[in-house]
């Protein structure tokens, strides 16, 4: 927080993220209220996240060749327009399943550019490689504070006003980050040279040939294919299992956000990158356990506790892997490595959400989460065997960085 540019970014991002979570919960509730379809919940999430997998890697190569701050300003403006259009369509009672999926897909395409832009610019905002892991942890902390505060707030706002108002609030929230970005004065990060195709292939070769990067991306895929799919099914648990409403959904989501916030506070205190490997194993194990407990529990208090543990475990894995990948990546490759991270993080979240929605339509939401928990437990058992080599490789690679 001693860096002026990072403070400006941090303040704007805080407001923007809160608005994003308000919109996400309101949209999830709107889908289930209008259609009652658990499969459509999965399809909507899939449409919003799939572009991260398909477009994200190429977006990372493209942004590495351009002025990232100017691009981020443009993308933030487009995201504000998307949220405003969503609000207008909902307020005029023109939202239906097709439009919901289309608007979610548009959001996904914009996020495929927004996420690698924001993440790869953090290093230039702090101006010190030594401060980068802590800056990333603080950035993730903001996301998780929003995740803790935003869902209960969205549940309250939906009850008092409407989903359209939540979308309008999100549209206004982008102005805060836009203002911060316009006030920032920093040298542009170095640009990659060559065609987008050449730049993309260079990034793929680095990720594939660097053992810790390759293994960390595999772990990222596993955690998001299984544990992260809980979010798609939360409206089902809130309404059908616990007999609640949008406020119930908000509390469940907020409990997961509370755990995720605690994980970023925990990660911000880590001093040695190699030690994060053991932390990742802890996070994966806790996530598997929380899924198994939550799946067939019918007590709301225990459900909130399980959500808190699940949020902690998933966030420890996602944020810890991001910290490791960005610390390992050279400056000229950072946009591409971040795009591979976001493509895997959100792309496999999309696939997992779609599969969870379809499976829940056949065997029910509780049984679906039980299966996800078992699969993650099996992966964690396998990953334990690779811990020593991965820790050693991370230490070697980071010591070799200038």
Automatic annotation (TrEMBL):
Coiled coil: none annotated. It is a multi-pass membrane protein. Keywords: Cell membrane, Membrane, Transmembrane, Transmembrane helix, Transport. PANTHER family: INTEGRAL MEMBRANE EFFLUX PROTEIN-RELATED, STAPHYLOFERRIN A TRANSPORTER. InterPro entries: MFS_dom (IPR020846), MFS_trans_sf (IPR036259), TM_effector (IPR010290). Residues 1-389 form the Major facilitator superfamily (MFS) profile domain. One of its GO terms (cellular component) is plasma membrane. CDD domains: MFS_MefA_like. It is found in: Cell membrane. This is MFS transporter.
